[in-house]
Design goal:
Elements lengths: L12 H10 L6 H7 L3 H12 L6 E10 L7 E9 L4 E7 L7 H15 L12 E7 L10 E4 L2 E2 L4 E2 L4 E7 L7 H9 L10 H10 L10 H34 L1 H25 L3 H9 L1 H10 L4
Parallel strand pairs: 3-4, 4-8
Antiparallel strand pairs: 1-2, 2-3, 5-8, 6-7
Helix pairs in contact: 7-8, 7-9, 9-10
């Protein structure tokens, strides 16, 4: 990957924010969650993955908080039901560790625990699907999609508990409908998307004039949170450098210089990553100090 100029500048804060939002793709989890607030988008993705064009979503919840009073709770990316009562949990997982088989098992079990009613027969539990949309081939079988369900080994038949787990490997391409959906997950320009439903939603979310309205505000909030986190950590680093320098040349002057240099460096790095469309790196760097340091070295900012 070619390195861009370290002197990258944006005329205003809004310009940087616009560029940040323009580079988002559906495989960026924050963007996917906002896109899925439109039920038609959720419906289309489920129809394509499950090959069920007749599927209709009746209700859904984004970032549903499933409680476990005696163990680990979960916040699900998208939880929805269709008109038949079948439950679907869609999870975007770019990190292989976040899509382990035992995590899928826990999602399925916790969903059952939260929907089962006291006094009701277990026979009333609906069919469920946990769907992991993964950036990598987590199961390492070189397949585009994996369908997992229990079987009775001795009979070679399905065990009818109606729990299903699906892994979609978006690192594998094809020319079929599933392959086209995967391409859309990585497409920046909505005009180049195969799906008119997804393209319409993405296009609306990327209109600059809507940045502070409705669902779009969730993305600007995410941007502002990233910036705040970087500024905070950059300030702390700057303070340390400033205090060390201040021992010799004067605390006040050294601290001011350290703060200014640190914030300027973080702003440059943020701009470069946005310019190159490396949104995942941007999010990861906001949480991982060592990773952020490696990026600073990569772009020769330290």
């Amino acid at each position: 990957m070619s390195k861009k100029s370290n002197n990258l500048k944006f005329s205003t804060e809004l310009d940087l924010k616009r560029r940040f939002l323009a580079e988002l793709i559906l495989m960026d989890d924050i963007f996917m969650r906002v896109v899925l607030k439109d039920v038609k988008c959720t419906e289309f993705i489920l129809q394509t993955i499950l090959e069920k064009p007749e599927l209709r979503v009746k209700r859904q919840s984004i970032q549903s908080d499933l409680k476990n009073l005696e163990g680990r709770s979960l916040v699900l990316d998208c939880l929805c039901t269709d008109k038949k009562g079948t439950i679907y949990n869609i999870e975007l997982q770019n990190d292989s560790l976040g899509a382990s088989p035992k995590r899928a098992r826990y999602h399925s079990g916790l969903i059952d625990m939260n929907i089962s009613k006291k006094g009701k027969s277990f026979d009333y539990l609906p069919e469920s699907y946990v769907i992991f949309i993964c950036g990598r081939d987590v199961l390492k079988g070189d397949k585009q999609i994996y369908h997992i369900s229990r079987i009775i080994k001795e009979l070679g038949e399905d065990f009818p508990d109606q729990t299903n787990i699906i892994y979609l490997n978006t690192s594998k391409s094809s020319s079929n409908d599933l392959g086209k959906l995967i391409e859309d997950f990585y497409t920046v320009d909505p005009k180049k998307m195969h799906s008119k439903i997804l393209a319409k939603r993405v296009s609306k979310l990327k209109i600059a004039e809507n940045l502070e309205k409705g669902d779009e505000k969730a993305m600007t909030t995410y941007y502002d949170r990233l910036k705040k986190q970087w500024k905070k950590e950059g300030t702390e680093e700057g303070m340390a450098k400033g205090m060390a320098k201040g021992m010799a040349k004067g605390m006040a002057k050294g601290l001011a210089e350290g703060l200014e240099k640190s914030e300027d460096t973080m702003a440059k790095l943020m701009g470069i990553l946005v310019e190159e469309g490396r949104i995942d790196d941007l999010a990861k760097a906001s949480k991982d100090k060592s990773y952020r340091k490696s990026l600073l070295k990569e772009f020769q900012l330290i």
